[in-house]
Design brief:
heterodimer; A: mainly beta; five-stranded mixed β-barrel; two-stranded antiparallel ribbon; 7 strands; globular; disordered C terminus; B: about 375 residues; alpha/beta; 11 strands
């Protein structure tokens, strides 16, 4: 089975996927109070505003947390294990955190280390993998227990 | 805060099946056995029940009321809080009894593994489906073990919590199950070497950091304390109960305070309502879906400060001879997974002095927690005849 992919036309998130196709991370910003609202919600949690402009937030961040998954629990990931899912806080606004994949072939960096987004086309949609900035290539076959 | 339903509810009957795998039974059959046992325990007629609180998705209130011949089903409630449903439902039961919406309330959970696998393929009750399917599933992040592993990893980073401390939770639950003949893991001890050698599920969670999936049914019946006095068993008062939801209950990855959970908000309400505090509890039944979530809930409920949960469990505090015995039945990790209603049942048995070989010497009041979905939570303070 193939991995589940996002629907790039789902209206509330479409500008994000349009951004990843161009190589930019875009985030909705409240037109009333300028808060960046991520994930894209129906209203702004700071001021209850309903209107948002999508603006680039930059492609850099820092590792916030991670897990290396040893057993596939979602169809399409059977051949991928072990793989590492990361949460990365945006350098421009650490309150915004993205879920993504650690690019294959890298050791998991330390929490707090700098990361940079890479854009991986996959059919109609471009997904985001994260590369450790200055990261080391993985030298082990299976993830270490830490 | 005011609690207009305080003192309105007592647990008067509990019933539970054994925990099994591959029973071949339907959730209806398991529910019926548990409900029937709870009615016998209370000495009530099924016809007296008029309120039902059900776990969704699952066996419905209508099926139960029709099959058991309720005279009238007047009050149905379903809290969409995953594993926090049973404890949060103690609050709904209290409100229903205080207002007269119902006179006898049944709370139950019944599931078989086949059904639960079907549930977890879609987990329709989880909030924020669009975030899950559009922003998380494409990266292979889709299940509770994987979600909560992120919480555990960050806690290890911030507070120095160790794998050995997670192990202590798993080993303690397994040890407790050795005194519970109905536990799935009864007769199956676990060593630290076996724990460390188990397959990796979602680092730092290995196999024995994760709760069981079992078949079973469990039921609790409540009524007003004045009615309870005429029934068979000593009533167990719901002295305090609260529910809570994390600041971003629809999303874990962007939670402003990473360790904030529903319990952080529920526990102060419940202790205030009961007029007591965590240090007064004789035991705690903690929703142990995964090992780290026990540590996190001990902190957020106020049994220790945030960041001190690891050393707290490593000191032996949660063992049956420790300062706060936790999950004397073995919990979800070693008794069985009944969405935490089995934690309420165990608390009631301890408070009545009916826990057999595993009876605690002192059991006057016990805290019970629930955890579900993306961190929804609930806590109840149950008070028995020996308080």
């Amino acid at each position: 089975m193939t991995r589940p992919l996002p629907d790039p036309d789902y209206a509330d998130f479409a500008p994000f996927w349009a951004g990843t196709r161009r190589g930019e991370l875009m985030v909705p910003t409240c037109t009333r109070c300028a808060r960046r609202v991520w994930p894209p919600r129906m209203a702004c949690p700071s001021c209850a505003g309903l209107r948002f402009d999508w603006q680039p937030i930059g492609n850099e961040g820092h590792l916030y947390s991670w897990t290396t998954i040893g057993r596939a629990m979602l169809a399409g990931f059977e051949a991928e294990v072990p793989y590492t899912v990361v949460i990365v806080s945006a350098a421009a606004d650490p309150r915004v955190r993205f879920v993504g994949r650690l690019a294959d072939g890298y050791e998991v960096p330390a929490i707090g280390d700098p990361m940079v987004a890479s854009f991986v086309p996959n059919g109609d949609v471009t997904l985001v993998n994260w590369l450790p900035r200055g990261g080391r290539a993985r030298s082990w076959a299976r993830p270490a227990v830490r | 805060m005011t609690f207009g339903w305080a003192g309105s509810a007592a647990i008067v009957g509990v019933g539970q099946t054994s925990a099994w795998r591959g029973s071949g039974r339907t959730p209806q059959s398991l529910a019926a056995e548990a409900i029937s046992a709870a009615l016998d325990d209370a000495g009530l007629d099924a016809g007296d029940l008029d309120g039902v609180h059900t776990y969704v998705p699952g066996v419905t209130a209508e099926e139960v009321a029709t099959a058991f011949g309720f005279r009238e089903l007047r009050h149905v409630s379903a809290k969409p809080m995953g594993g926090a449903f049973p404890v949060a439902s103690l609050k709904e039961a209290g409100i229903a009894l205080a207002t007269g919406a119902a006179t006898h309330v049944l709370i139950f959970v019944a599931s078989s593994q086949r059904a639960s696998r079907a549930v977890f393929r879609a987990h329709p009750g989880i909030p924020g489906q669009q975030f899950r399917t559009q922003l998380e599933h494409p990266y292979g992040w889709s299940r509770p073990a994987q979600w909560y592993a992120m919480l555990a990893r960050r806690h290890m980073h911030e507070f120095g919590t160790t794998k050995r401390q997670l192990a202590e939770v798993a080993l303690t639950m397994r040890r407790h199950a050795q005194l519970n003949p109905t536990a799935y893991m009864y007769g199956r001890e676990l060593t630290l070497d076996e724990y460390l050698a188990a397959p990796m599920i979602a680092d730092p969670y290995q196999k024995f950091d994760c709760c069981l999936e079992t078949d079973g049914g469990s039921a609790v019946i409540l009524t007003a304390p004045d009615r309870a006095a005429d029934l068979k068993r000593p009533p167990v008062l719901v002295a305090g109960v609260g529910e809570g939801h994390p600041v971003s209950g629809d999303d874990i990855s962007n939670r402003p305070d990473w360790f904030d959970i529903g319990l952080s908000h529920a526990a102060p309400q419940a202790f205030e309502m009961a007029g007591t505090r965590p240090s007064e509890m004789d035991a705690a039944m903690i929703y142990d879906c995964f090992t780290f979530e026990v540590i996190q809930q001990l902190e957020e409920a106020g049994f220790c400060a945030r960041g001190e949960g690891g050393p707290f469990v490593e000191s032996g505090a949660i063992g049956r001879d420790g300062s706060l015995p936790v999950n004397t039945h073995g919990g979800l990790l070693s008794e069985g997974h009944l969405a935490g209603i089995n934690h309420i049942v165990e608390a009631v048995r301890q408070l009545r002095g009916e826990a057999g070989e595993r009876q605690l010497a002192r059991a006057g009041q016990i805290a019970v927690t629930g955890w579900g979905d993306l961190g929804d939570g609930a806590l109840a303070v149950l008070r028995g005849p020996h308080a």
